[in-house]
Amino acid sequence: MQSIARKAALSQATAYRHFPSVEALVAAYHEDVITSLVEHGERSRKTGKELFEHQAARWVKLQNVHGPVIVRFSSQRGILARLQNAEEMAALTCGAWDQALRGVLIDLALPDALLNVARFLHNALFDPREILDLTKTAGLPDEQVVRRLSDAFYGALKGWASD
């Protein structure tokens, strides 16, 4: 917290007055990132796959800026376990993606009963670590990352539904 306060040009006491721990600060930071994604989706008039890819493009751009912080403090549990335990960040994340995920299910003629599967597959494929790996390590342009991950997501959903 001392290093963060110094970089923010705040006293350590001021930093602690707003955030009791580094974890609380990072949680608020992550919440702001997800909230900006929610607002981005709400402003869009797109539906189905178009909305999903619109959100995915924004998510990839957000990871290029905020991903290293999000990754460092990511939960060790999966999205379904976090939802089951009613974790606030998991609910906020679903709020950012569920309309787009439901639209993809409709476009692929898949039942809404697969929403949790869609959440799981999306969470696995669009993990910030993997996005950073593709953009920073593999050097893929954002548009290519969105296209490849989206296509993989659609294929995984179809494959899951065919069982």
TrEMBL record:
<keyword id="KW-0238">DNA-binding</keyword>
<feature type="domain" description="HTH tetR-type">
    <location>
        <begin position="1"/>
        <end position="37"/>
    </location>
</feature>
<dbReference type="InterPro" id="IPR001647">
    <property type="entry name" value="HTH_TetR"/>
</dbReference>
<protein>
    <submittedName>
        <fullName>TetR family transcriptional regulator</fullName>
    </submittedName>
</protein>
<dbReference type="InterPro" id="IPR009057">
    <property type="entry name" value="Homeodomain-like_sf"/>
</dbReference>
